[in-house]
Amino acid sequence: MTQQRVDLHLHTTCSDGHYSPQELVGLALKAGMKAIAIADHDNVDGIDRALKSGDELGIEVITAVELSSQWQAYQDIHLLGYGFDHHHAELKRQLADFREFRAGRNQQIVEKVNRQLAGEGRAPLDFRAIEASAGGTLGRPHIALALRAAGYAKNHDEAFDRYLVPNDVPKRFFPIDEAINLIHSAGGVAVLAHPPYVTRNHGELEALLETFVEMGLDGLEAYNNGVNQEGVYWLIGLARRHQLIVTGGSDFHGTEGSTITLGAGVGRLSIPYSCVEEIRSALFRRQAKSKA
To answer: Are 270 and 228 in contact (CB under 8 A)?
Structure first.
């Protein structure tokens, strides 16, 4: 019997993805996925559209979000939330505040980039046009697209290396304990995304994980692009040692030139449906605990 595959880490135009929620569900159908989760950055605006398309096409869609968090010296730790109420008032308020801060940050970045462009004798970027083209949560990849469209960079790497990295403005992050609590308050489970991008030191990662588990972390994204198959097995073992659920996703954005494909990541991922079942079990346990 063919294994039922899933992809629980996808991005749409509501954050920094290339495809709309509806288009992404259609792509998942073509890729043979049984279930998906759209985990836009700090944004849940695409979930209702994805759920509707999933019902129409017969693809199971799980509510998800990816929060940018930090802990002590570790910055930009990504935390995935699954199975929560995406209309939860406090969750939506905090995400809106976060996006408002981010919009101000991106405007400052464009202003700094424009000063560099002026020094090069080039026309400035139009921030409002970039904001409108994003269609959701504006991020640096949208500014990179504008630089490419203007002919100032050949690709995303050049746009970042030449303009965006030198003109960066510090980001804002959720403290990871607050991010975990926010997901829990909306009825969801919290999962550490692509652990090797936090640290590739196994001992360091396990020590961090022990701290996060004490904060209420529910799971680990063992299937991810940062490891080979041996690394996936090690992360699954790490999750089991700490009684965490296992999830997986490609982190697909659909960006032009990217080697990441939906359902397979960089080509080696095969994420089983059991990951969805583990999320459901964790949600059931959390709900039962809250009623006790």
So the answer is: no
Copy the structure tokens of residue 91: 């969750």
Beta strands 60-71 and 74-82 are antiparallel
Residue 38 · residue 11 · CB < 8 Å: yes
* Angstrom distance (rounded) from CA 16 to CA 143: 11
Question: ∠ CA 37-282-218 to the nearest 5 degrees?
Answer: 80
DSSP symbols for 198-237: T-S-HHHHHHHHHHHHHHT--EEEEESTTS-HHHHHHHHH
pLDDT recorded at residue 132? 86
φ, ψ of residue 94 to 5 degrees: the values are: -65, -35
Asked if residue 92 has pLDDT above 60, the reply is yes
Q: Which residue has the higher pLDDT, 171 or 206?
A: 206
Q: According to the model, what pLDDT value does residue 131 have?
A: 85
Which residues, 6+ apart, have CB-to-CB distance to 129 below 8 Å?
A: 146
102 by DSSP, 3-state: which? helix
State how far the Cα of 100 lies from the Cα of 21, in Å rounded to an integer. 22
Contact 3, 272 (CB under 8 A): yes
Q: Which two tokens stand for residue 113?
A: 């980039």
Phi-psi bin for 254: left (phi > 0), alpha (psi -120 to 50), beta? Answer: left
Correct CATH for 5-94+179-291 of 3.20.20.140, 3.40.50.720, 3.40.50.1000, 1.10.4160.10: 3.20.20.140
Q: What is the pLDDT at residue 290?
A: 75
Q: What is the DSSP string of 114-178?
A: HHHHHHTT-PPP-HHHHHHHH-SS--HHHHHHHHHHTTS-SSHHHHIIIIITTT------EEHHH
Residues 6 or more apart whose CB falls under 8 angstroms from that of 285 comprise none
